[in-house]
Amino acid sequence: MLRLAPTVRLLQAPLGGWVVPKAHITAKPAKTPTSPKEQAIGLSVTFLSFLLPAGWVLYHLDNYKKSSGA
After folding, report:
1. What pTM value is reported for the model?
2. pLDDT tens track, the chain, 70 positions
3. Which residue windows are transmembrane per the record (predicted)?
4. DSSP 8-state assignment for residue 68
């Protein structure tokens, strides 16, 4: 157990000198409120950016299986 202590200190040494800046988080409402139209557009773009590529791959899955050499 005594041989483990220097190893632990050696591994913890690089982490001791790092200072993490404090996040500036406020509980105030937004200066300019987001309209429901902007929220709907933002959510639509977010979901489509994830779903369209996945859907394209699933639609062309048979092509991937056929072109595979294995």
Report:
1. 0.49
2. 567 777 777 776 666 666 778 888 878 888 899 999 999 999 999 999 999 999 999 999 999 888 866 5
3. 40-59
4. -
